[in-house]
Amino acid sequence: MKKLMHILFLSCLKATELIEKKLNFQLSWTEKMQLKAHKMMCDACSNYEKQSIFIDKGIAASKKMEFPETDIEQLKELIVQKLENTE
Amino acid sequence: MMSLSKTINLTEWVETYTNELYSWAFYKVSDAELAKDLVQDTFLVAAEKIETFKGESSPKTWLFSILNYKVIDVYRNRVKQPVSMDSNVFSSFFDGDGSWHLDKRPQNWQEEEQHLLDDADFQDVLKKCLEALPEKWNTAVKLKYLTEKNGKEICQELGIAATNLWQIVHRAKLQLRDCIENNWLKK
Predict the structure, then answer these.
(1) Percent of chain B with pLDDT over 70
(2) Same domain, B96 and B163
(3) Is pLDDT at B151 greater than 50 in this prediction?
(4) Residues B153 and B131 grouped into a single domain
(5) Domain's final residue, options B52, B80, B108
(6) Which residues of A touch B152 (CB under 8 A)?
(7) Does the beta-carbon distance from A11 to B99 stay under 8 Å?
(8) CA–CA dist B146, B140 (Å, integer)
(9) What is the DSSP letter of B101?
(10) Predicted confidence (pLDDT) at residue B102 exceeds the cutoff of 80
C-alpha cells in the first residue's frame, strides 16, 4: 500500500528533491501534479517547501557580508613584484 | 617581451583596480587568501594577454572579465569535490521508504518571514549553519545569488548536469534547514 502511495504521490525524499528541482529548474506536468498531491497530504513537506524558499531569501539578504581586514597596499606591491618577475 | 608603455599601464592598473577586484573576488568566494590569489592571477593573465587588449572595452571591464573566469573555475572545482557525507545524508532524514524520521519532520516555524529576515540573531544562525556545510554544498546553495543566473545557465557554465546540481542543493538544504530549526527555533 505504501509503495503504491509513493508511486502515485511520491515519498517525502522524492517530494523534497522535486521541491529543489522546482526552485532551480522546472517540473514536468506529471511532477507538478505529484508534488501538489503529496503536499496536500503531507504537512512536513509543505513546511519544507515554505522554509526552503525562505532560506533562499535569507541567503540573498545576507550576501553582503563584512570584509576581513586586508592590506590592499601590500597586495598591490606583491602583484607589481610578480609582474616584474614575469617580464 | 613587454613594451615599456604597457608595463607602466599594468602597474597603474594594479594601483587603480586592485581594491575593487579584491572586494569582488572576496564577495564571490568568501575566502580572503583565495581572493588575493585570484586578483594576482588576474593581473598575471592580463600581462600575458596584454596584446589582445585592444582598448575596445575599458581596462576595468577587461580585468573583471578575466577575474570572473577565475571565479567560475573556483565554483566548478568546489561543486565537483567529493563529499564524504553525501551518501548517508538521506538516511539521517528519511527511513528506507523515503518517509521523514519522526524527529526530523520539518516543524511549522510560525514566524513572520520579514521579521525573521531582519532579525540579527536569525541571520547569525543562518550564517553559522551555512559555514557548517561542506564547501561543495555551501557553494551550491549560494550559486543562484553569486552568479545571478538560473539553474540551467549555472549548469552550462560549470559543465555539470542539472540533475547533479539540484541533488547537491537538496542535500545542502536538508542539512541547512535542520540546522536552523535546531539552533534557532529550539533555543
Answers:
(1) 93
(2) yes
(3) yes
(4) yes
(5) B80
(6) 25
(7) yes
(8) 10
(9) P
(10) yes
- For A1, nearest residue in chain B (alpha carbons): B97
Q: CB pairs below 8 Å between A and B: how many? A: 138
Mean pLDDT of B106-123: 81
- For residues A1-18, give the mean pLDDT: 82
| CATH number, position B122 | 1.10.10.10
Is B26 within 8 Å of A47 when comparing Cβ atoms? no
- State whether B114 and B180 are in the same domain: yes
Residue B79's Cβ-count burial label (10 Å; 0-12, 13-18, 19+) is buried
- Amino acid identity for residue B166 in this structure: W
| pLDDT score for B55 | 75
Closest chain A residue by Cα to residue B106: A44
Note whether B108 and B152 are same-domain residues: yes
| CB-based contact A25:B166 (threshold 8 Å) | yes
Q: Which domain holds residue B21?
A: 4-80
Residue extents of the structural domains in chain A: 2-86
| Total count of domains within chain B | 2
Inter-chain residue contact B107 with A47, CB threshold 8 Å: yes
Specify whether the CB–CB gap between B45 and B85 falls below 8 A: no
The nearest CA of chain B is from the CA of A20 a distance in Å of 6
3-state secondary structure of B69: helix
- Best mutation target, A28, A55, A65, to test chain B (most B CBs within 10 A): A55
Q: Which residues contact B45 (CB under 8 A, 6 or more apart)?
A: B66, B70
* B102 and B177 part of one domain: yes
User: Which residues on B lie below 8 Å from A2 (Cβ)?
Assistant: 97
Partners of residue B15 in chain A, C-beta under 8 Å:
76
For residues B75-100, average pLDDT: 88
pLDDT in tens, A13-60: 999 999 999 998 999 999 999 999 999 999 999 999 999 999 999 888
